[in-house]
Amino acid sequence: MDSTLQLLIADDHPILLKGLADSLKSIGYEQVITAINGAQALDMIIEQVPTIAILDIEMPMLDGFEVIAKAKDLGSTTKFIILTSYKEKAFVLQAQKFNIQGYLLKDEGIDVIDNCIKEVAKGNQCFSPSFNEVIDIEITPQLEKIKFLSPSERTIVRYIAQEKTSKEIAVILSISHRTVQKHRTNIIQKLNLTPGADSLTLWAQEHREFIDMM
């Protein structure tokens, strides 16, 4: 075990926090510090520069992704592993957006967490199988469809996701209502949606995270 490796663990559940810290120390990690909220985690990252920060997503004051964003803005060299109960696509997309090094679920064994730490310390990425499943099944197919939309169509989808009507979109973009409707028809075809007035609206509301990435 590399004795120079310093870990920060941040979680607002004291029992889980202590349990993970104790488990990591028991398998040889000598430098383990802990934080009970996002603001404290950020302060420790900036002041102590841990090699790797293992962060929960939902924490008081700052969530895990906010900690990562602020730390990177401040030039932090710390590498990040998200350790969470969430595997929904919104969180996976956030992890992709910030290009984090690891994403694990809290029901993973200590051996999996240990392996992830070692891989991230070597400069590799390490993700839970559930993370990769969400990418392969829920995210990649939708992103592939979105690639076929023209810039104008993507703009209209963004407004639809904001619950704008076709008439409102026409006014905003200074185009005719008929043109908006024609774009909607083309978008529905490209996304392979069921023809109908509500299908695109429902898709846009369900996939706001994808649309934000367009």
3D structure, described in words:
- This protein has 214 residues and is of the alpha/beta class.
- The protein has two domains: 6-138, Response regulator (Rossmann fold, 3-Layer(aba) Sandwich), CATH 3.40.50; 148-212, Winged helix-like DNA-binding domain superfamily/Winged helix DNA-binding domain (Arc Repressor Mutant, subunit A, Orthogonal Bundle).
- Helices cover 56% and strands 12% of the residues.
- The protein has helices at 14-26, 38-48, 64-73, 89-97, 110-121, 129-146, 151-161, 166-173, 177-190, 199-206, 208-212; strands at 6-10, 31-35, 52-55, 79-84, 102-105, 126-127.
- Strands 2-1-3-4-5-6 form a six-stranded parallel beta sheet, with helices on both faces.
- Helix 4 (89-97) links the parallel strand 4 and strand 5 (102-105).
- Helix 7 packs across helix 9 and helix 8 crosses helix 9.
- It is elongated and about 65 Å long.
- The relative contact order is 0.10.
- The mean pLDDT is 86.
Give the gist of this structure.
The chain is an alpha/beta fold and 214 residues long. It contains 11 helices and 6 strands.
Question: What key attributes describe this structure?
Answer:
single chain, 214 residues, alpha/beta, Rossmann fold, Arc Repressor Mutant, subunit A, six-stranded parallel β-sheet, 11 helices, 56% helix
Structural class comes to alpha/beta
- CATH architecture of the largest domain, by name, is 3-Layer(aba) Sandwich
Overall pLDDT confidence? 86
Number of continuous helical runs: 11
The level of helicity is: 55-70%
Provide the β-strand percentage band.
Answer: 5-15%
Overall body shape: elongated
Neighbour order of strands in the largest sheet:
2-1-3-4-5-6
Instruction: Tell how many strands the DSSP assignment holds.
Output: 6
Which oligomerization state do the chains in this entry correspond to? single chain
**Straight-line N-to-C gap:** 42 Å
Within CATH, the superfamily of the largest domain carries the name Response regulator
Rg: 21 Å
Order of helices and strands: EHEHEHEHEHEHHHHHH
- Stretches where pLDDT is under 50 for at least 5 consecutive residues are none
Total domain units = 2
Q: What would CATH call the class of the largest domain?
A: Alpha Beta
